Amino acid sequence: MLNNKAKTKKTFSAKRGEAIAGWLFISPMVIGFTIFMFGPLVYAFFMSLHDWPLLGEQAFIGLENYRNLMSDASFTNSLKVTLLFSLGLVPLNIILALFLANLLKEKFWGIGIFRTAIFVPVMTSLVVWAIVWKYLLAPELGFINQMLGWFGITGPSWLLNPNTALPAVIVVSVLKNVGLNMILFLTAMQQVPKELYEAAELDGASNYVKFRNVTFPLITPTVFLTIIITTIGAMKIFGQVYVMTNGGPGESTKVLVYYIWETAFKLFDMGYASALAFVLFFILLVFTVISWVVRKRWIFYED
Amino acid sequence: MKTKRRLTLKYISLSIITLIMIGPLIWMIATSLKERSRIFTQFFPNPIRWENYLDVLQNGTFLTQYWNSIYIALLVTISVLLFASMAGYAFARLNFPGKNIIFILLLSVMMIPPEVTIIPLFLFMRDLDIINTHIPLIILPIFGAPGAFGVFLMRQFFIAIPKELEEAAVMDGCSRFKIYWKIFLPLSVPALSTLTIFTFLTNWDEFLYPLIFINDRDLMTLPVGLSLFTDETGTAWEHLMSATTLATIPLLIIFFFAQKKFIEGMTAGSIK
């Protein structure tokens, strides 16, 4: 009886000890994310309800910042540019990555060189990649236009022309990251059972038919997830634009994050910038939730 | 016959893509070795002017920024390894009230993009009077994507470790921290190294935080420093290209020595 009581007491205190240990172990991360992530998110919403200049008095104005968004031509433009950027980048990136992964999925002489080469831009720093391309695309002296000159073509002033600046930034961004998606697809393709290809070959299927009827259906979950992740990345694009075009010429490459940065840290309109940031937050939230749903489905699919 | 033609086509298209991918970097290295007057008249440098690198290295600001980048990325990486493995251990091996809900909350809150929280964080850091110091650059990234990914990765890793290892230590009366430190951490070197590479690379590339929190050139890290290098010297292409080449070297070294881990770290992080 007494022994029994002591035992329950011990397990109880052991349990409590374990709980305290658990909380202590997670406390650095939990405290950090509360102070530096969750707190600022809530505060950003609070700020978006205010007229909030960097210096001077802030005043509560309710949803006025959000109402002002509708009539702000720069905002609609930044949304449009971000959308165009994503619509250009995502399909180009995914299709090129699929094409390359399909070419590089079976071993052949020199495969290592090709795989590494395509991955090289992924491992360079984004700013370095953007700077190098800015110089390659320079109007007269840039290497790209010099090369076009050999064929008698006068290249445009890529980054200084409102019609070519955005496409140029898109292509540079695709080249930077296509290697990463290629690796993701390669990994998925290597899990496709070999027997399926053998069966398709017996039926005399061409490479294209094999890709369409065997490879693609089996890697659809990966492709879908990669599309969402790439889209989230595209919605947040900033560094390349900052380095290559500064949002210009005009507002032709002024994406949403660039506009947020400019409103907050050039014009010091913190309240309005917070409202802009919240628009971005909701867009990203939608995609993140979709990715969670897909991931959950995907796990069932694998089971 | 048909397969041969197909193979040729494969090699041709892959060669073109390879050229587009590594061409810019070859051009960067080539330009970094040219004489200024010959930048536009030759593709391969002749004569090779190694002094461009000396010029850049003698520019004190560049070296300072290089050092800033290295030591900040290292501090962030060490902190992420420690905090993420601690949290991952608790979530995998200990029972405490609220465990599952806190885990889910932690992962979802850490998905909050820094682009959204940067404005309040700026005011916060200004009130703490630590704008234009390295403190925000070291603290904030710990709780970003690498931190969240790290907790997840370490938890997955620790869950798979057999119970017996732990039970023996509990019998001997080892403290939880000792079990984590002496038993679990040494076992997790594979996961830790993936996390190291992912965190270091993400931080080496970090652009937004230093752009907003730092004003002095000597306190900047390389990405922002290099982006301003463009504006300042305008036409000194060869010096800028020496600087960007030097900034790429740590990444090449990591890639060269840990290619598999490198790819694993990059892809695992992006799928997160």
What does this entry look like structurally?
The complex is a heterodimer of chains A (303) and B (272). Chain A has a two-stranded antiparallel sheet. Chain A has 2 domains: 2-48; 71-302, MetI-like (MetI-like fold). Chain A has 12 helices and 2 strands; from the N terminus they run αββααααααααααα. Chain A has 303 residues and is mainly alpha-helical. Chain A has helices at 2-48, 64-70, 73-103, 111-123, 126-136, 143-150, 165-189, 194-202, 207-235, 239-244, 256-265, 270-302, and strands at 50-51, 59-60. In chain A, helix 9 runs antiparallel to helix 12 (270-302) and helix 11 runs antiparallel to helix 12 (270-302). Chain B has one domain: MetI-like (MetI-like fold, Orthogonal Bundle), CATH 1.10.3720.10. Chain B has 14 helices and no strands. Chain B has helices at 2-32, 51-58, 60-93, 99-109, 114-127, 135-139, 145-159, 163-171, 176-187, 189-204, 208-213, 222-233, 237-257, 259-271. In chain B, helix 2 (51-58) packs across helix 13, helix 7 runs antiparallel to helix 10 (189-204) and helix 13 packs across helix 14 (259-271). Chain B is globular. Chain B starts with a helix and ends with a helix. The mean pLDDT of chain B is 86. Classes of the chains: A mainly alpha (303), B mainly alpha (272). Chains A and B meet through helix 1, helix 4, helix 5, helix 7 and helix 9 of A and helix 1, helix 3, helix 4, helix 5 and helix 9 of B.
